[in-house]
Here is the input.
Amino acid sequence: MLERFEYKRATMRDIDELVRTRIIVLRAANKLSDDEDMSVVEEESYSYYRRALKIGEHIAYLVYDNGKFIGAGGVSFYQVMPTYHNSTGKKAYIMNMYTAPEYRRQIMDFHG
Here is the structure.
């Protein structure tokens, strides 16, 4: 039986999909029209992903439904000064969560 959902850890080959998703998320979160120029953000996002994926500073997953892209999510890792409760100063930030509109607000059976 073919599994419906595939979860894939993003690699350098997935940068186009990651940047495309990032722009979609930013447009939605900031209520920006498709006419709004996002070329600088897009260019900087490419630079960010190329660097951060390479050194492990960012991990992203892509989700597909029988080969069709339907979602993504990522975690950025960064460091601040050490504190009493966090002696390493290492932190993580969950970001760029995206679900295709037709898959939102549904209860999915992920157990097959």
Q: What stands out?
A: The radius of gyration is 16 Å. Residues 5-100 form a domain with the Aminopeptidase fold (CATH 3.40.630.30). The mean pLDDT is 91.
